[in-house]
Amino acid sequence: MLLGVDVGGTFTDAVLVGRDAAVHTAKVATTPERQERGVFEAIDLVLERASAGAADVERFAHGMTVTTNALLEGRTARTALIATDGFTDVLELGRQARPHLYRLCDAQPVPLVPAELRFAAPERIAPEQTLRELDPAAARTLVEALAAAAPEAVAVALLHSYADPRHEQLLGELISELLPDAQLSLSSDLVGTFREYERTATTVLDAALSPLLASYLQRLADDTSAAALVEPQIMQSSGGLTDIARASAHAALTVLSGPAGGVGGALLLAELAGARDVLCFDMGGTSCDVCLIDAGEVAETAERTIAGRPLALPALDIHTVGAGGGSIAWRDSGGALRVGPASAGAEPGPACYGRGGTSPTVTDANMLLGRLPEDSPLAGGLQLDREPAERAIAELAEKLEIDTRACAEGIVRVAESEMLGALRLVTVERGIDPRDFALMSFGGAGPLHACAMARELGISRVLCPRASGVLCALGLAAAAPRHDLSRTVLLRDDELSAEHLRAVRDALVAEADAALAGERARLRVAYELRYSGQSFELSVEQSESVDPDALRERFAATHEQRYGYREDDANVELVTVRVSIWGAAPELAVRGERGDAFAPGTRVAGPTVCALPDSTLFVPDGWSGEVDECGTFVLRDVGDNTPCNGVIAEDHE
Q1: Between the CA of residue 162 and those of 142, 191, 194, 541, what are the distances in Å?
Q2: What is the pTM of this model?
Q3: Cβ-based neighbour number of residue 601 at 10 Å
């Protein structure tokens, strides 16, 4: 059996898939202080429901929010930085661009390394030669001074170490000798690409987060060993699994671990539903993650920002907003209704959970509007209580000077507006027409809002998996191992020969193969090119062959598609080569449940509420469809395509 466990901000989900394609699920409250406790509560529950034992689990894949939450909350290790002399303040300087053009007082995030923990290495390497050799005696003196500062983690990011890592490796050996218990991150091992600010920031982030993640994963490994479970594999931001040792050593690889699992689950069920163009949104208790599946592929990015800090590592192109079922509604200083980004979280949770929460949330609003049945417990055994939800929203309604029901409707609409903005960001703002896509909703709260948002976007088809509340965990169970390598090569046009390209490519592929556990099942090679004089690159894939002319032509076509022109006479530069390899994915099939209220072939028509095992689907008036063989609700808009307010009449059963 295949086990996937995903830790979210509010719930921890487990999925167990047997060889008969039966999907067993469990959902428990996340235990923020000791997340492994919630993990094993979910595992014990799902094993019990499947009448299975630890020995039946062939593979255990895990995704979590440990690193993301630690970064957002500022819970990082005491970290030191060694940089080339003259470049120790690169984190402080950053880039000249401001995230908000007209907010002149907005400051960049405080560097994770304070000034007193930044150390200058007396060395200098250029892209093609060494300008100042690092003397071993000077290096030892430097590391001794570093050791005296007693850091918990050390990041080493020297200028142009992607081209020549010798100096970083020398410092790494000395740090391992003099500070054996400190976390060590070398930029040449982790990033391997140019742009010193992004490379340094990524290396520092990796060093600062790894001690916390390593501590959690060690406790998790100890508990799995005691329970006679197989050792967990960890989901990376790239959507592939890695072993627990690599994840512990490089926490930056896992910043989007949980959402990446959801994308994997969406890919699996979209393929089973025969859909290759799908707009996905995952609405959990704390946040909403959106992404685009275009022609059966999810876009990736090697440069993104997390909590205002650059991350120069491969990651699925997922956009996140602070709108979840637990997002708190509030009145701003101008008297407007706002929702999020603050969340009620797992403890105490929304007011309707009956755990002492008093803040009005999106879940409370959905309950007052009849979308959540009071007599049917939520996943995890939560029995909803209408009275505290009504009390919390009535208090906010009084501040806004509107009635309670109007306030509940407003909370839902504002939350949906936040999520619509994220969906438009990955479609309309990139020149993509969302009407050509199906909308897939998942997460515990996503199916409550799917049809309303689809209608706003002009989308006429909605997919809602039966396991939508635990789809991230299902995606983990279906994931394959993956290893990525990147190298900046900076080759001019006259150097783009087949022999030169093949040498670079083969060296990276061989190194990636050696690092991947098991045999390679899939290979992707991407080349980042630009016209001479440009500052940024476009990525072009050429995995099966090495053909410089075909590479130039593909780059020119991509440039024309993106910017509207091409320059066939201009020189083309190859900046970076990226190699990704996957191991074999498990053979995983999913079938719908037979003999229950939502068996394959079941017809549904709005307005109605469908209480699924781990989420709730709201089908408004004008929408209807049926359940397919895999248990996915396939709904179509048969109404007048006017935006719906998503409200069920009070007398509707």
Answers
A1: 22, 8, 7, 22
A2: 0.88
A3: 11
